[in-house]
Amino acid sequence: MTITAVDVLDVRFPTSSGLDGSDAMNPDPDYSAAYVVLHADDGHEGHGFTFTIGRGNDICCAAIETLSEHVIGTDVTDPYDLGELYRALTHDSQIRWLGPEKGVMHLAAAGLINAAWDLVARRAGLPLWKYLSGLDPDQIVDSVDWRYLTDALTPGEALDILRAAEDGKAERVAEIEQRGYPAYTTSPGWLGYDDEKVVRLARQAVADGYTQIKLKVGADLEDDRRRFAAARAAVGPGVRIAVDANQRWDVNQAVAWVSALSEFDPWWIEEPTSPDDILGHAEIRRRLAPIKVATGEHVHNRVMFKQLLQAGSIDFLQLDAARVAGVNENLAILLLAKKFGVPVCPHAGGVGLCELVCHLSMFDYTSVSGTMDDRVIEYVDHLHEHFTAPAVIKNGRYAAPTAPGFSAEMKRESLLQFAYPHGPEWRNRA
């Protein structure tokens, strides 16, 4: 199966108009996707994207087009081919200089690599989580780039993890198909929402079966205390409430601010400081215990995740489906998290991230960690209507995707309507 063409589209949604997605560092996001379609010579397509919040989405599209020369003419038939594609996209000797393995070029690689996995899973007639679950441990290990990781996790150790998980895998696959995977929701907690809306949505979330919600914090301490108190009163003591500062604070400020919220029993503090500050996260975690620390949506690559784990910096690892270079790198991150005993609770929301990450968590359960203890996938209730196989939540849990592929395909009418800058949605706003 050879890739013959690559289409790239700049797709943006005007979410800033309702302050959906607003937080202390990103007050006016327009959720966007640098969207990719791979065309194969057997007629199959692969769909993928990388997520941005508006301005700069065109830069990601240009980067994808630049990397496409590594994709056209490539055979993409099995996990070995996908491992070779990953290395081609991330090891280009000149483009690598722009990272290495971080930033816009890495986001672009994610869009292409995720589309390639979508293509292979579609051809196999399986949803990606089930396709991955059916691979041999050796195939998973061969798809990972082990450079820079072996001081923390060797390929042999990874094989041992995967082989140990073979026992009971069929039962776990059946459980995922029957019961799905636990979710939590950020929908009540956007910083731009007034108190009444926060309370109403928090109560609705609990009524819908969620046992955890999340609030955005970090702009004004007294506002945060008031909103948190209102949310806690609305849901009661038995519901976990996580808080997310979106990188707002220095280390000492993070400790002081979260300490001032501690009476409301925060479950975790997410992105309390710069995502690059591995030792800062470790210090915050030490000083705030037993309040937990979570991060990951802006962690550039598997090497930074390795160091966060080695330094004992996090209680929860929040991988992102499109921040690192796609499925291959996230397989490495899941294996690292298992080695260090840290639960994976993926970042989602955005455009289509809910659709993608549930595949990774479900594979983690069937084939890597073998547990759902303290594990939840973020869910945000918007933009799902634009996808051909949208994420489905039932009683606070992600239902297992059944359509072949990675659930990345957007409806053609949505691609046309929200194409930037010439789609009807954006022409009408000009």
UniProtKB/TrEMBL annotation:
<dbReference type="InterPro" id="IPR034610">
    <property type="entry name" value="L-fuconate_dehydratase"/>
</dbReference>
<dbReference type="GO" id="GO:0000287">
    <property type="term" value="F:magnesium ion binding"/>
</dbReference>
<dbReference type="InterPro" id="IPR029017">
    <property type="entry name" value="Enolase-like_N"/>
</dbReference>
<dbReference type="GO" id="GO:0016052">
    <property type="term" value="P:carbohydrate catabolic process"/>
</dbReference>
<keyword id="KW-0460">Magnesium</keyword>
<dbReference type="GO" id="GO:0050023">
    <property type="term" value="F:L-fuconate dehydratase activity"/>
</dbReference>
<protein>
    <recommendedName>
        <fullName>L-fuconate dehydratase</fullName>
        <ecNumber>4.2.1.68</ecNumber>
    </recommendedName>
</protein>
<dbReference type="InterPro" id="IPR029065">
    <property type="entry name" value="Enolase_C-like"/>
</dbReference>
<keyword id="KW-0456">Lyase</keyword>
<dbReference type="InterPro" id="IPR018110">
    <property type="entry name" value="Mandel_Rmase/mucon_lact_enz_CS"/>
</dbReference>
<dbReference type="GO" id="GO:0009063">
    <property type="term" value="P:amino acid catabolic process"/>
</dbReference>
<dbReference type="InterPro" id="IPR046945">
    <property type="entry name" value="RHMD-like"/>
</dbReference>
<dbReference type="InterPro" id="IPR013342">
    <property type="entry name" value="Mandelate_racemase_C"/>
</dbReference>
<dbReference type="Pfam" id="PF02746">
    <property type="entry name" value="MR_MLE_N"/>
</dbReference>
<feature type="domain" description="Mandelate racemase/muconate lactonizing enzyme C-terminal">
    <location>
        <begin position="195"/>
        <end position="291"/>
    </location>
</feature>
<keyword id="KW-0479">Metal-binding</keyword>
<dbReference type="InterPro" id="IPR013341">
    <property type="entry name" value="Mandelate_racemase_N_dom"/>
</dbReference>
<dbReference type="InterPro" id="IPR036849">
    <property type="entry name" value="Enolase-like_C_sf"/>
</dbReference>
<dbReference type="Pfam" id="PF13378">
    <property type="entry name" value="MR_MLE_C"/>
</dbReference>
